[in-house]
From TrEMBL:
It comes from the Bacteria. The keyword Kinase does not apply. This is ABC transporter ATP-binding protein. It is found in: Cell membrane. Coiled coil: none annotated. It comes from Rossellomorea oryzaecorticis. InterPro entries: AAA+_ATPase, ABC_transporter-like_ATP-bd, ABC_transporter-like_CS, ABC_transpr_CbiO/EcfA_su, P-loop_NTPase. Its main location: membrane. CDD domains: ABC_cobalt_CbiO_domain1 (cd03225). Gene3D superfamilies: P-loop containing nucleotide triphosphate hydrolases (3.40.50.300). It is a peripheral membrane protein. Pfam families: ABC_tran (PF00005). GO terms for molecular function: ATP binding.
């Protein structure tokens, strides 16, 4: 399969079909037994996984916290990717894009599952990576908020030239915002 650059590719399919497994192969979290994966024309098996993950950034199905406050969580991705930390204005803008209406010094542990998902989206957005791998990034949100958040996230990612690959259970998200849809099923 080909994943087009600067587009949004949605991966859909039944539970257990291998969607997360496929995504994890794209940044060397898993190594395929067979076949090869190329990134920008080069086989990823030759790439350093840490360097690869600085530009091919993943959000896992269960959102992780990387610090106490919202601010710390937002800065963590930039620190990991050795990029300049964000200003308060940039962080506030990122929170606006992902529709998370909270102060930067809020304790992240107080956030609900859906708010943690949006915080994760804000964190990776600030990194402006070459590619985003998103595993069910809005699964805890109601349908209306999910569509709103993904719409503004994809616009923002596209503005800096980011490629989005997302696993989604939502055919609505896939149909409305997927430039490409990859459907996988169990054999
Ligand atoms: N680390 C692992 N070791 C062994 N089996 C695994 C591992 N990770 C996933 N699997 C199995 O591989 C299959 C595909 O799992 P995967 O998580 O990729 O599915 P999925 O399509 O993302 O499912 P869901 O929609 O339920 O999240 C499942 O049967 C799962 O149990």
């Amino acid at each position: 399969m080909d994943i087009p650059e600067n587009k949004n590719t949605c991966i859909i399919g039944e539970s257990g079909a291998g969607k997360s497994t496929l995504l994890k192969m794209f940044n060397k979290m898993y190594i395929p037994d067979k076949g090869t994966i190329h990134y920008k024309g080069n086989p990823i098996k030759d790439m350093d996984p840490v360097n690869l993950r600085r530009e091919v950034v993943m959000i896992s199905q269960t959102p992780l916290l990387f610090g106490d406050t919202i601010e710390e969580n937002l800065q963590k991705g930039l620190i990991f990717s050795e990029k300049q930390t964000a200003s308060r204005e940039e962080m506030t803008q990122a929170l606006k894009i992902v529709k998370l209406d909270k102060d930067l010094d809020t304790d992240a542990k107080e956030l609900s599952g859906g708010e943690r998902q949006r915080l994760s989206l804000g964190r990776v957005l600030l990194m402006k990576p070459e590619a985003y791998l998103l595993d069910e990034p809005t699964s805890a949100l109601d349908e209306e908020t999910e569509l709103e958040v993904m719409k503004s996230f994809i616009v923002a990612a596209r503005e800096h030239g980011g490629t989005v690959v997302m696993v989604t259970h939502s055919t609505n998200v896939a149909e409305q915002y997927g430039d490409e849809i990859i459907r996988i099923s169990k054999r």
